[in-house]
Design a protein that fits this description.
Helix content is about 80%, strand content about 0%. With about 230 residues, it is mostly helical. It has one domain: MetI-like fold, CATH 1.10.3720.10. α5 (about 95-120) packs across α7 and α8 (about 175-190) runs antiparallel to α9.
Length: about 230
């Protein structure tokens, strides 16, 4: 029978501190990238709306299809190593990773939000316009709140899926939770125990994020349950 030795992970304060550092880095990298990703995703969804110029709609759809049909690791390497060569800029590794996560999340969020926008009855848009609201007032005050409320569960599920793929950033040396686990495993040679702990920590982070999103939904859309 396999001899579990979890105490090997706790015997050194360095290992515990490394794992906690990984938890913190995974948390803030994902959270910041997700916030920017939602903003960019809304813009991508609006760019594909009715009445938008063909070139803008085509560019938005092309971007979404490109990102959703290429691996995140390829996008990550392109943003971190390719863009600095093409554009001649120098960013910190963490900033480049946040940009890669933002660009990746935005494509998935954009598609989900676009579906939510299309589900809003056209009659509500026409009614808002008839009341004298401008096009952008109608979008931000009538369409977007309903669209996001409708697809909110899908956005949370998409977030969880994308969050679990961010462990790939450890491949370029970013000290996230996966990197921390590999660091500890490489020094204790207790890979099985380390990855059991990583599984538990990732699950805890997911539940923390889900709890936060549930509170955010009740705060941002208190009218949703009453209006149905």
């Amino acid at each position: 029978m396999f001899d579990f030795r979890f105490y090997e992970l706790w015997r050194s304060p360095e290992y515990v501190q490394t794992l906690l550092m990984g938890v913190g880095n995974s948390f803030w990298l994902t959270l910041v990238g997700s916030v920017f990703g939602i903003v960019f995703g809304v813009l991508l969804a609006l760019a594909q709306g009715r009445g938008m110029p063909f070139g803008l709609r085509f560019a938005s759809m092309s971007y979404v299809e490109f990102v959703r049909n290429t691996p995140f690791i390829v996008q990550l390497f392109f943003v971190v190593f390719g863009l600095p060569l093409l554009l001649g800029y120098t960013w910190s590794l963490e900033a480049s990773v946040v940009l890669a996560i933002t660009l990746n999340f935005a494509a998935y969020y954009g598609e989900v939000i676009r579906a939510g926008i299309q589900s809003v009855p056209q009659g509500q848009v026409e009614g808002a316009m008839a009341l004298g609201m401008s096009r952008w007032q109608t979008i931000f005050d009538v369409v977007l709140p309903q669209a996001i409320a409708k697809v909110y569960p899908s956005m949370v599920s998409q977030f969880v899926f994308l969050f679990l793929t961010t462990g790939l950033v450890s491949e370029i040396g970013v000290k996230d939770l996966t990197w921390a686990g590999r660091f500890v495993a490489g020094r204790t040679f207790r890979d099985f125990e380390v990855f059991i702990v990583l599984t538990i920590l990732y699950m805890l982070l997911v539940y923390i994020f889900k709890g936060g999103f549930a509170i955010l939904f009740r705060t941002a859309f208190p009218w949703w349950g009453k209006s149905r």
